[in-house]
Automatic annotation (TrEMBL):
Domain Nucleoside diphosphate kinase-like: 97-237
Gene: Ciic3
Protein's recorded name: TXND3 protein
Domain of life: Eukaryota
SUPFAM superfamilies: Nucleoside diphosphate kinase, NDK
Family: Belongs to the NDK family.
Amino acid sequence: MSNPVLVCALRRADAFTVLADALKRFTQCREKLGRSGHHLQTVISSTPEVTFRQAILFFTETDFVTGKTSVCCLGCPQVGGEWLWVSPLCFVPGAQVLCTVLLIKPGAWSHCLARILRQLYLQQFRVVGMKHINLEPDVALGLLSSEVKEDPAALEAHCAYLTSGAALVLCLQRANAVKKLIDLLGPEDPKLAQVLDPFLWRAQYGTSTVQNGFYGSKSYQTAVRDMKLFFPEGLCCADCQTLEEEEV
């Protein structure tokens, strides 16, 4: 850009509403005075999640002036693997409720769906979307990691399996949903998962790195992409975040 911009991280109760109202009144006042042809142009974060992602682009933890009431410790929740700074008057009052996507691969869901749903309930996940789907090859390809795509044999095996039958896609909601689901699934190799913890889901339901039972969104950004892909018509709860494109 040709001109510098001013980036501020602000904190207070009802921050989004109060800031939007203040900027609106300030702009109206400048327009009435008419002393300058320049208009104030602003970009305001729309949600706590967007605020967090934008804040870590411009600031480090040491840049924040937190005061005595703020909390920043190893007990803070994570969003997509990043620590979320929490204050009683800041972004959110506790761990943020997020959505993530779980795809139960062909064969796995038809044999143990009741048990999986029971485990999701015990882990405090709320099912806000469910779809029975036959994956198209291009969709299956989009779910694979860059490492798999670099190996032609592995790529062919994964795509063939994912498109071999019907899969069940669930959109799940809970506090810190993305990381919690990844922790429950465990490593993509079921043998490694069994060594780490036999109760990990891939250890229980997977048989190989290809037929490992599950796909789970690995970050918040990936979860948003997956929700748009599998649930373009929306989700079945009114309090879910909208799935409109989020841009910095």
